[in-house]
Design goal:
Its EC number is 1.1.99.14. GO terms for molecular function: glycolate dehydrogenase activity. This is Glycolate oxidase subunit GlcE. It comes from Microvirga puerhi. Keywords: FAD, Flavoprotein, Oxidoreductase. It is globular and about 65 Å long. The chain folds into three domains: 179 residues, 2-Layer Sandwich (Uridine Diphospho-n-acetylenolpyruvylglucosamine Reductase, domain 3); 89 residues, Alpha-Beta Plaits (2-Layer Sandwich); 74 residues, Alpha-Beta Plaits. Strands 4-5-9-7-8 form a five-stranded antiparallel β-sheet. A four-stranded antiparallel β-sheet has the order 12-13-11-14. With 394 residues, the protein is α+β, with helices and mostly antiparallel strands. Helix 11 packs antiparallel against helix 12.
Length: 394
Amino acid sequence: MNTFIPRDEQDVATIVSDAAAKGTLLNLAGSGSKAAMGRPNQTDASVTSAALSGITLYEPAEMVIAARSGTPLSEVVTTLAEKGQQLSFEPMDYRPLLGTTGEPTIGAVAAMNISGPRRIMVGAARDSLIGVRFVNGRGEMVKSGGRVMKNVTGLDLVKLMAGSWGTLGFLTEVTFKVLPRPERTSTLLIRGLDDGVAIEALAAALGSPFDVTGAAHLPAPDRLGARTLIRLEGFSVSVDYRLNELRRLLKRFGPADILEGRGADAVWQSVRDATVLPERGERAIWRVSTAPTNGPILTARIAAAIDAQWFYDWGGGLVWIASPLDGDLGASVIREATRALGGHATLVSAPDSERSRVDVFEPQTEAVMALTRSIKASFDPVGILNPGRMYAGI
């Protein structure tokens, strides 16, 4: 399969317009670190953002950064850290889960709306994304948004492109709003809680006025036992005060230890990257969003039907589930429980053959699917961009 490596946005436009004229199906890629996600699409050629690299704008005083889509995420993170700033939404690194290599790119963060544990406080990547440049399926260069957050009248292309998985256009540049890095990070650790009680504790913490930036429960059946984690960030004096207040608030759930430093960072990285679950390849991995209080009910229903393992993030609103690599990978059980309790499930990791026959994304109603097809046709009328990556035939 041919691989095109455009040097600039005009190159991208030329490649895409030529492909549209010939009906050439294109696989859009960055470094390939997330190639094993989504449905395996059947394409004729690949277009990579590898040469579209570099930070194009950074205004620390305005807390705005823009970069070409192929810019390594690590470069953006390092540049921000030098000025005491960060991408607030804490993007996940999928490589440990998928067993892939390559350097994650900032364009993929936007295209796949990649976020982490801090989402409960600051929102997802799409909430910090304020500008995009992309080439649609006609080969037209499009710019939307800019350096400031503002109200949007009409179709918000910035938010539409976030999480579109390259099916609507090839991102060439993205602009994010950033935030200061916290002076101190501290985590309350409560041991031994069962799922229901742990979610109750997390709900109490998140419902408090103490600005929790991470809330996870790891019911891991290992030597460490069940761990309930509540993270606080900010100025040291403020963190001390909030730690003490939260300890009082959560006293009924048992004694709470305080974690800081590398140990705490490692725990939150394992939550962010879902490495709490079994080793890659042993099981299929699902990402389920539901109402936080429904999390323990959902996992209990799933566990009654299949051999599953799981942990909770976002106060229980995000459940990572590992299911056996047989049958339908637990899809019918997981989606039945999700439909009954509200939410949606995404198959994150499984062999290509399984992701071809099992719906990766939550099946849509016919009305929503019709709207999805209509939007796809507006941006990519010939259907050449990442065809079938999200839904078969689209």
